[in-house]
């Protein structure tokens, strides 16, 4: 799937007439929504996670933690436009990786979704459906996907807050982006083998959340634990700012899942609605479990509950009907709660690793759970509308396909984790 349109596709009249003209392929509504969605995702990182990280740790680690998030945002910018975007979405080098190259020369190029040279491979040949008829510039796509990449690395940082050397983090960010994130992104979204095979990840449950959850857990293992006194008691230094950062993260998810529709059409609205219904359900479920088992609600628990469903709904948000958001919210508020509050205290593997914010539970477990929910609830009509690569994607509640999709979803999660 090429990342650039042929020069003949750029109207010469547009180039020669200055900035007053509009290219015929541009849809101003799609363009405006894509830029808005990208900005909302950006707000999740800066200031959202910068505030959240700086306030959820002990005061002595506040500046270091916030600065880790800020640095990751800036470093990812340059890596992304110089080589990362094309490695994730450009011309194929191998089935899991694109060829590196700069994405600063796109000028008036349309996004890949609008290019006549784009090939969508399915069992019935080349197809084009309304959802992928969105028309906006390639620069919009580079911007939107950048914020996804940056947010992934910043969420990963939650596993190593409170003890990681900042200079080590400065090296880690570009290296992990090159050798891990771009592989998953190309394989799943850039036309690589997972996409061709029919693994479904609408907006990043695998590429972003399983990736950050597992990578954060492994990083926490190698970095080592916090001091024992910090592991025993690590109170937030400002609970109101924790809620502020969490609120920016939650509301920013409108752009995260709504923007993944790549157009201002009905799927964008459905994805945003599903996202917020499910997140509210998960927050209330997690809080209820805290009250029932521990006798009182927890602010941090409520934030964790909100976060887990934002993760769980992500791989399915635009591919499932609204009634499933309630079910996914209850699953998101209970299964990761059990792994964090019960399993974590009993399994020696989890006990050995000091995952500061429990990223393996909120993002790792949540992302895999969301992928399984795709197998349960994927609506074949919505899948066709969004050009899922293969036809046999019926969720279990729509007839299923003999467990084939579930096997694909689990295999896809295993590859991303690896």
UniProtKB/TrEMBL annotation:
PROSITE patterns: AMMONIUM_TRANSP. GO terms for molecular function: ammonium channel activity. It comes from the Eukaryota. PANTHER family: AMMONIUM TRANSPORTER MEP2 (PTHR43029). Keywords: Ammonia transport, Membrane, Transmembrane, Transmembrane helix, Transport. It is a multi-pass membrane protein. GO terms for biological process: ammonium transmembrane transport. It comes from Physcomitrium patens (Spreading-leaved earth moss). It is found in: Membrane. This is Ammonium transporter AmtB-like domain-containing protein. Pfam families: Ammonium_transp (PF00909). SUPFAM superfamilies: Ammonium transporter. The chain crosses the membrane at residues 32-54, 61-83, 142-161, 168-190, 202-224, 236-256, 323-343. Belongs to the ammonia transporter channel (TC 1.A.11.2) family. Residues 32-417 form the Ammonium transporter AmtB-like domain. One of its GO terms (cellular component) is plasma membrane.
């Amino acid at each position: 799937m090429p990342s650039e349109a042929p020069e003949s596709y750029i109207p010469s009249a547009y180039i020669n007439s200055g900035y007053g003209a509009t290219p015929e392929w541009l849809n101003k509504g799609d363009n405006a929504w894509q830029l808005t969605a990208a900005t909302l995702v950006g707000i999740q990182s800066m200031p959202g996670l910068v505030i959240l990280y700086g306030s959820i740790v002990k005061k002595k680690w506040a500046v270091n933690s916030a600065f880790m998030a800020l640095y990751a945002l800036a470093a990812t910018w340059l890596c992304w436009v110089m080589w990362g975007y094309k490695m994730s979405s450009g011309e194929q080098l191998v089935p899991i990786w694109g060829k590196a190259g700069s994405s600063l020369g796109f000028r008036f190029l349309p996004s890949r979704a609008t290019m006549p040279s784009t090939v969508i491979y399915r069992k019935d040949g080349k197809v084009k459906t309304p959802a992928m008829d969105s028309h906006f510039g390639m620069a919009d796509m580079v911007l939107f996907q950048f914020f996804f990449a940056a947010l992934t690395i910043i969420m990963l940082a939650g596993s190593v807050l409170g003890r990681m050397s900042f200079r080590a983090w400065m090296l880690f960010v570009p290296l992990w982006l090159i050798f891990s994130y771009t592989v998953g992104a190309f394989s799943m979204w850039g036309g690589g083998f997972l996409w061709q095979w029919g693994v479904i990840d609408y907006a990043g449950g695998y590429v972003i959340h399983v990736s950050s959850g597992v990578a954060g857990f492994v990083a926490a293992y190698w970095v080592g634990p916090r001091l024992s006194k910090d592991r025993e008691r690590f109170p937030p230094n400002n609970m109101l700012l924790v809620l502020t950062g969490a609120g920016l993260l939650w509301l920013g998810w409108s752009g995260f899942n709504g923007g993944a529709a790549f157009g201002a059409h009905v799927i964008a609205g459905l994805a945003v609605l599903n996202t917020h219904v499910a997140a509210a359900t998960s927050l209330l479920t997690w809080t209820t479990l805290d009250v029932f088992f521990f006798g009182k609600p927890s602010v941090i628990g409520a934030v964790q509950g909100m976060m887990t469903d934002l993760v769980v709904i992500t791989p399915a948000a635009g591919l499932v009907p609204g009634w499933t958001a309630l079910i996914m919210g209850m699953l998101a508020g209970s299964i990761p709660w059990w792994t964090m509050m019960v399993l974590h205290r009993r399994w020696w593997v989890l006990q050995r690793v000091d995952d500061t914010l429990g990223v393996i539970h909120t993002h790792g477990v949540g992302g895999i759970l969301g992928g399984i929910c795709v197998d349960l609830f994927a609506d074949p009509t919505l899948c066709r509308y969004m050009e899922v690569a293969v036809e046999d994607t019926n969720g279990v509640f729509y007839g299923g396909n003999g467990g084939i999709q579930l096997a694909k979803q689990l295999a896809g999660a295993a590859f991303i984790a690896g």
